[in-house]
Amino acid sequence: QVQLVESGGGLVQAGGSLKLSCAASGRTFASYTMGWFRQAPGKEREFVAALSWSGGSTYYADYAASVKGRFTISRDDAKNTVYLQMNSLKPEDTAVYYCAAAANGYRTTRRDDYHYWGQGTQVTVSS
Questions:
Q1: Partners of 7 in beta bridges
Q2: pLDDT above 70 for 25
Q3: 116/95 Cα distance (integer angstroms)
Q4: CA 80 to CA 27: how far, in whole Å?
Q5: Interior CA angle at 22 toward 95 and 62, to 5°?
Q6: How many CB atoms lie within 10 A of CB 38?
Q7: 65 Cβ contact list (under 8 Å, min separation 6)
Q8: Do residues 46 and 115 touch, judged by C-beta distance below 8 A?
Q9: Whole-angstrom distance, CA of residue 20 vs CA of residue 1
């Protein structure tokens, strides 16, 4: 069983930055694919970014087109933590952001491939 706890959400003006953190329990964290998703009011939960292990100390990073170039996903396996650095934030980035883990380690952006989810953290970007 893996537990995920997000933190770092809040209110920020357009153009600003926030850094989200997700602390994970579990001894096999390094092999999990870790992802971030978000859900705005009245919308489906959508993929934001993911890191999947490709062997050794190398990971693949994938991003949604809407955040590529503005958001960066990273992980610290020693701390069992994954981060989402969000820069140049826009009002349309407003959503609840969820951390997720895929125990099979697949390189995937599909919501259904993720087995474990955090409780979510609210990000609000004002115009």
A1: 21
A2: yes
A3: 19
A4: 9
A5: 70
A6: 23
A7: none
A8: no
A9: 22
Q: Among 118, 97, 85, which residue's Cα sits nearest to residue 39?
A: 97
For residues 9 and 6, give the distance between their C-alpha atoms in angstroms, rounded to a whole number. 8
Residue 52, token pair as written in the block: 């999947």
One-letter amino acid at 55 equals G
CA angle 10, 14, 17 (to 5 degrees): 55
CA 14 – CA 55 distance, rounded (Å): 38
Whole-angstrom Cα distance, residue 124 to residue 127? 10
DSSP assignment string, the chain: ---EEEE--EEEETT--EEEEEEE-STTGGGSEEEEEEE-TTS--EEEEEEEEEETTEEEEEE-TTTTTTEEEEEETTTTEEEEEE-S--GGG-EEEEEEEETT------GGG--EE---EEEEEE-
CB 35 within 8 A of CB 109: yes
Give the pLDDT band of residue 27 (cuts 50, 70, 90): low
pLDDT at 94 over 80: yes
